[in-house]
Amino acid sequence: AAETVPAAPPLAVPAAPPQQAAAVAAPSAAADLGDGGTSIAFPPDSAHMPNDAHADLAALAARMSKDPNLMISLQAYAAGTEDTEGHARRLSLSRALAVRSVLIDLGVHSTRIEVRALGEKVPSGSPDRVDVAVQRR
Most buried of the four, 30, 36, 92, 97, by CB within 10 Å? Predict the structure, then answer.
């Protein structure tokens, strides 16, 4: 039986002003989403967490420890087509679980982390990423 996961509303990612465009294009695995969250780029067809994303997740975990009213939403994506939809969904889930595992290791309780594996249903940008959004309960 196929499991259906409801589609999440797309994240509103503000466009960077021209003077900041170079900083956004820097070859970092993480990009700031503006809400205290981040977007973690993954290598194509891989769920291996990029090493340079750990610092951003550590800072996020520290913020979470200071404010018990914050929640984290992970929206994971993976490149794919209609023919490879199942693979893309599984890969995006593996990526989200890798990020979740690091956050839990850093002290964030699992009940404060919501995971959404969206596969190839990418609203915009690179499909090989996990968006980490911070929300208030």
Answer: 92
